[in-house]
Write a sequence for this structure.
């Protein structure tokens, strides 16, 4: 049997660069080498969009995109993605020349390259996702991938279920076109206010406020509670948490990564 050093020299001479694919999958948490070999031979792995079923194939995970069952893998990913609960009167930006509170005041200087994926207006509250993963951010914000967003809106006035149904089935015409809600449900109401849960894909500026304002029910409070599979949960206003690997995987899948 050839000495390992001899094998290394021979591999270099034959142009065998990179890491064996099954080793990369094992390092990414897909199980033992044997299990990862089965994943490859079952036709579940793509490298740069091409199906790979040959054991021993070598890859460069720092430059090549590797997917298992359609979802990209993360190998000791140095990227960080945060879920933040933005309070009212905080700007969805990292800096403000007027000295108003921004997202930077919440996360501090620990994550220098992190930026927000989408915005909430100054008077709205709730979930904002932040990351230093440019590819993820591009997919989350791009209209093509239509990530669902869920809001709890407090409206001025009492509305009935027929209004919610009409916003889902017929929509409302705004200055920039017709918009429909994916879901609308009344949570609570009294003579002065109605609390509704709404779900929609649109990421247009102030879209929920504009929808209900157009039909005569101004929004007095707006909280975003979910973006795709990521929920606001128990994050306190003005606080944040780092997303888990499972949450990142679910978000990747949601936006086609």
């Amino acid at each position: 049997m050839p000495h390992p050093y001899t094998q290394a020299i021979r591999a270099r001479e034959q142009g065998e660069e990179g890491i064996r694919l099954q080793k990369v999958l094992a390092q990414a948490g897909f199980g033992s080498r044997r299990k990862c070999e089965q994943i490859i031979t079952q036709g579940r792995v793509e490298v740069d969009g091409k199906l790979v079923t040959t054991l021993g194939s070598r890859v460069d995970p720092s430059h090549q995109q590797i997917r298992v069952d359609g979802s990209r893998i993360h190998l000791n990913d140095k990227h960080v993605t945060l879920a933040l609960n933005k309070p009212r009167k905080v700007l969805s930006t990292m800096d403000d020349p007027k000295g108003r509170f921004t997202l930077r005041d919440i996360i501090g200087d620990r994550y220098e390259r992190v930026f927000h994926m989408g915005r909430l207006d100054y008077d709205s509250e709730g979930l904002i996702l932040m990351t230093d993963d440019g590819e993820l951010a591009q997919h989350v914000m791009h209209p093509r991938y239509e990530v669902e967003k869920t809001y709890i809106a407090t409206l001025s006035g009492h509305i009935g279920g027929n209004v919610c149904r009409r916003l889902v089935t017929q929509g409302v015409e705004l200055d920039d076109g017709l918009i429909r809600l994916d879901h609308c449900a009344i949570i609570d109401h009294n003579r002065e206010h109605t609390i509704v849960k709404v779900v929609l894909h649109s990421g247009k500026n102030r879209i929920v406020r504009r929808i209900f304002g157009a039909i005569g029910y101004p929004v007095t409070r707006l909280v975003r509670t979910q973006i795709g599979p990521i929920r606001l949960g128990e994050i306190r206003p003005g606080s944040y948490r780092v997303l888990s690997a499972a949450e990142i995987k679910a978000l990747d899948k949601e936006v086609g990564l």
